Amino acid sequence: MTLLESLWRTFLSITVVDVIDIVLVTFILYHLLVLMRRSGAVSLLKGVAAVIVIVSITTWLPTFNWLMSRLLVPGIIALVVIFQPELRMALERLGRAGFLGQAFSNMGLGTEGRQLAISEVIEAVAGFSESHTGALIVFERETGLMDITRTGKTLNARVSAELLASIFHLRSPLHDGAVVIRGSTLIAAACVLPYSESLGLSASAGMRHRAALGISEKTDAVCVVVSEETGVLSLAVDGALNRRLDRTQLTERLMGLFEQPAETPKLMFWKR
Question: Is 239 part of a structural domain of the chain?
């Protein structure tokens, strides 16, 4: 009874601030665990934890304790270096979720211009699919892709099916790589994309599909892929690769991803 009374008193003493505190800590711990699992740094974390335990239980060995405690700082620095891409992506997502992200996202990009660009891309990839012409087309959303466009050739041209056909023509010097589209403007061609290291990717997926999945994992960009071997159309978004899409399905997916009805507000980050 004493234990139950103590637990009951503790429960009654919990305030709204305590609940918010617990929820926030739980949220952070959960995402840290997910981050550790995806990054492959579990072994390093186990090593750091082992060092912390050894330092805690060897206080009676001053020299050994001092030596082990000095290993903690390099271990923490190594964690920051390993998690750097994930931390950057988390901060970008946090910025996109708040009011600043809503205020600055899609600034200056007209919906009509983007829809015209999508129509031109659909027309181009439909031809690529029939002729088995490999292509990688990246649509920039809220995350800037300046690091990606710097790896290619700057064009700053209006998107058109004819321009895309000339870029991805087999004899074109720009066909090997990806094009990046911002709004209705083709920013750059022959860009290098980061490859995905996902173990769940099918062995039949080529380097184009791995590159498309990689950019969708590290940013919020949308990437259209045309397989050179099969002519199959695929779409990579939010770290997922949707394969074997027909022209109608691809059009609906792209239009749904980029149209923003005025009456539908963006979800806050906790609802996402």
Answer: yes
- How does DSSP assign 92-149, residue by residue? HHHHHHSHHHHHHTTTT--HHHHHHHHHHHHHHHHHHHHHT--EEEEE--SS--HHHH
User: Within this chain, do residues 38 and 139 fall inside the same structural domain, yes or no?
Assistant: no
Q: Is residue 97 part of a domain?
A: yes
pTM: 0.61
Residues 93, 214 within the same domain? no
Number of structural domains, the chain?
2
pLDDT tens track, the chain, 272 positions: 678 888 888 878 888 888 899 999 998 888 777 666 655 556 666 777 777 788 788 878 888 878 877 777 777 777 677 666 666 666 655 555 544 444 444 444 456 678 899 999 999 999 999 999 999 999 998 888 888 998 999 999 999 999 999 999 989 999 989 999 998 999 999 999 998 877 666 666 788 999 999 999 888 899 999 999 999 999 999 888 998 899 999 999 999 988 754 444 444 444 44
Contact predicate 72/51, CB 8 Å: yes
DSSP single-letter state for residue 261 = -
Question: Residue 264 contacts by C-beta under 8 Å, 6 or more apart in sequence?
Answer: none
Residues 127 and 238 in one domain: yes
| In-domain check, residue 264 | no
One-letter amino acid for residue 90 of the chain: A
User: Using CA atoms, how far apart are residues 127 and 166, in angstroms rounded to an integer?
Assistant: 12
Domain assignment present for residue 222? The answer is: yes
Pairing of strands 178-182, 135-139: parallel
Cβ-Cβ contacts under 8 Å for 61 (sequence gap 6 or more)? none
Domain span at residue 43 reads 2-104
Beta-carbon contacts of 66 under 8 Å, excluding residues fewer than 6 positions away, are: none
